[in-house]
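Renewal narrative, Specific Aim 1. Our central claim is that a sequence can be written position by position from structural information alone. The example that follows is taken directly from our test logs and has not been curated for this report. It begins with the structure tokens describing the chain, in the order in which they were read.
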């Protein structure tokens, strides 16, 4: 007796899986390339924003230039820079596979 036509189904499934992988790589590779090109710029801007923001907050708080400086709000805003950097690296890790 001839075995059931499971081989055709298996071939179709592997073909669809391969086609899906090719399509995913066609989408993933340009996104990874753009994210990797922007990574030094994003890291520099977020790091510099955090450091300069904290220094600016300290200088404005210690000086008597303005009657009321919103230190808490500004510190929350500047501490958002490392959060943005963390989210950027998380997004990058979604698209980049570890070769192991």
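The sequence written for that structure reads:
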């Amino acid at each position: 007796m001839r075995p059931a036509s499971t081989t055709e189904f298996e071939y179709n499934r592997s073909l669809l899986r391969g086609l899906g992988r090719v399509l995913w790589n066609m989408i993933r590779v340009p996104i990874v390339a753009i994210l990797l090109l922007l990574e030094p710029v994003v890291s520099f801007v977020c790091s510099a924003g955090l450091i300069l923001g904290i220094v600016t907050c300290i200088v404005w708080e210690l000086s008597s230039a303005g009657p009321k400086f919103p230190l808490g709000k500004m510190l929350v805003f500047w501490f958002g820079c490392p959060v943005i950097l963390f989210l950027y690296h998380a997004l990058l890790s979604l698209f980049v596979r570890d070769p192991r």
